[in-house]
Each structure stands twice: as structure tokens, then as C-alpha cells.
Design brief:
The protein is α+β, with helices and mostly antiparallel strands and 357 residues long. It is 26% helix and 24% strand. It is built from 9 helices and 20 strands. Strand 6 and strand 7 form a beta hairpin. The longest helix has 19 residues.
Amino acid sequence: MRTLVCVQQLKDAPLAPLTTFRLGGPAARLVTATTDDEVIAAVREADASGTPLLIIGGGSNLVIGDKGFDGTALHIATEGFTLEGTRLELAAGEVWTDAVARTVEAGLAGIECLAGIPGSAGATPIQNVGAYGQDVSATLTEVVAYDRRAEETVTLTNAECAFSYRHSLFKDRPDRYVVLRVRFDLEDAGGLSAPIAYPETARALGVAAGDRVPLAHVRETVLGLRAGKGMVLDPEDHDTWSAGSFFTNPILTAAQYAAFLTRVADRLGPEVTPPAYPAGDGHTKTSAAWLIDKAGFTKGYGSGPARISTKHTLALTNRGEATTEDLLALAREVVAGVRDAFGVTLVNEPVTIGVSL
């Protein structure tokens, strides 16, 4: 078996600096790959030797246990931004926020409301990343990935990615595919945005839902909204030492939603109406942030080194000296409190490595 010689390799390597939480123990081995070939070679080597493999991009959606990872951590640091007309191709290691900025500068619409989301381009299809009325699945056309089972590079269409709310084929089969490149088809609307779909964005812009606004204005407005919630990375601001939204918004069946409304009325009064959005097939989506707040976990909650953000109840943060166990203890407290108050079980959005809620 060939040994990798062209990529950076470290033993007993700290992983915390590679995550936005700045948490987690070391990896037995850390490989940093800067080309697709290096990524594939590292994956093949790990698979051939039966070594556990952890893929790290921007580290914005990872919760790594304090004991670290007893295997090979592969940091994908590939670069590549290609724009031909409205068609965009990004290498998996491209910084997502930079890519969004460049598409806005080019006058192309479709991902401008995804400005400020930390992480790498390769992670966006895994979670079907979305915010402020846009999801990557709306403009993503193809994903080029290494199929570990077939041992070959494959190109998957949008439909084959099986996108749903914060979910995809890649999240469903985390040990099969390694994303190498993502492709989008954006829109040239003469320097204007896609129609504004999210009420909060429309209010901040002072327009009606469905209106189009100059792209740069939308991007700056979204960055302002995110910064106000501590969701734009700032090394000096511990409110941003997080994974952004720690929990997904619950999607409830008709029966679950009816039971939920009863719990809300009992706890908060019959005049209180929780946030509710149609989610297809008779399902209703409600707000995790609202549930957390109304269950008593307000902004800044906590007295230890892991606390709820002072800017947004949906973000759990490392105040500088936290361990992963500190963070998980807080997460479990929130999950139990919301379940006791409203009968709804929150689900964590970040991927957990070596630990669980």
C-alpha cells in the first residue's frame, strides 16, 4: 500500500483549532489535502487499512469529543472558484462566505442570503444549508463526490442528492460519499437579488416579500442580521464560538402539532400562538429558538464555560474555557427542558464525533 508523501501529515494533532466551537481532543493522525487527488488518496488509504476517517472542512458543524478521534482526520483544504456565465463550480475546501461575496460582486443571484454562514463549500449540500429564505438545494445542480463503496468519482444531480430540510443523501450516508466539488446555476437579474422570501429579511430591507433588491444591499443586510445574532465568526466575540444554530426547527405531524398547541396553551395561555409554517404533507414546522426561550432558556443562560449566546437562544457557545462535555451538558439540559415544557424533542444540527446527546 502506498503511503501519502505529498500532503501535510501530523500525529496526535489538535482538532479544536479546526472547529468553530474550538472544542475537542486530538486526532491520532491529521492529513491536510489541497487537491482532489490528495483527498481521494487519503480516503483510499484509510479505507484500505480499516482506519476510521473523519472529514473536516470549515469545522463549523462539528462537535468533537474531548477524547478526540482515534483515526485519520482529513482536512479538506482544496481551492477552486470557476464562474462561466451563471454556472458556478466550487472546490469543496473553498471558504463559503468568500464564494458568496464573489458571486454578489459578479452580479449573480441565488445564494446572496447565505452570506456569513461559516464553513466550506463542500459542507453546504450535506446539510442543505439554508438561511433567510434560501437553501443551496434551490440553485445547486450537481455534486462531484468520491464514492467510497464504488471506489470511484461520481457526479450526482440535484434530484439524486435527495435534499430535504437540513438533510441530504450525504447526511443520510455519511460514510459513503466525500464531496469534492459543488456546482450551481445562479441567476443574472441585472444586479438584483432573487425574490425576497423570508419575512425578517423583507422587514430589514424595508420591502415586500417577493421584491428584488440590489444584491450587495441584500448581502450586507443579511450579514448585519447574522452579526446581531452572533452568527458571523469573530475571534474576539465568544458569542460566535459556536456552530450557529445548534438545533433544527422541529417538524411536527398534525397529531403532534395539536398536542403541542395544547401544551402551549396550558403553559403560556390560550392567547399565545407559537410560530408555525407549513412543511408539506400535513406537517407543521415551528421555531426551535422560540421553544428554547419559552421553556426558560433565555439569551445568556448558564453560569459555566458553555452558555447560550447572549444574542440568540439557538446558539450554544464556548465562553473560552469550555470542554465538549460542558457543551453537551448544556445541550442536554435544553433538550430536556423543552421536552418537559412542550412535549417536543429538539434534534441537534451539528454532527457529533465520539459523543452524543
